Amino acid sequence: MLKMKAKTLVCSGILLFACALPAARAQLAGIQPLGSTVEENNDLLHGWSVRKALVNEPVYNDNNDKVGSIYDLIIAPDRKATYAVLSVGGFLGMGIHYVAIPVDHFEIRNGNLFLAGATKDALKRVPEFEYNKLEKATKPSKVSSQ
């Protein structure tokens, strides 16, 4: 009788645990479509991440000298990437100079980003890029699908 109660208790615990799992899985991105269709979600999973593909990637000049790294991308209201913000120079996060360069100035060669004619010194002479102080106020309040 005691063995039967123990088995019932164990089985009940397993069932409660198993019933709780789907609810936990529903919170994982990519499993439950949150505001998108299954097809859109599949496209998302096969897409690429700007953060992983571009941010902190080195930028080289024609002499294969590293002249900076991608720090950020600026997206225009028409949803197109218009400028890349480069971090130039600096050591351990000190003295970094940020410059905005139009994205059409970059080339991709053998999987690397190139900025023709650029040098660290020339980029440091470019006026420093500063983010809009009213950035939060100017963000689009609603993303519409087109």
Automatic annotation (TrEMBL):
* Protein's name according to its UniProt entry: PRC-barrel domain-containing protein
Which residues are listed as membrane-spanning?
Answer: none
* Signal peptide start-end: 1-26
User: Which residue range or ranges hold the PRC-barrel domain?
Assistant: 54-111
Q: Where does the record place a coiled coil?
A: none
Q: Name the Pfam families on file.
A: PRC
Keyword terms of this UniProt record: Signal
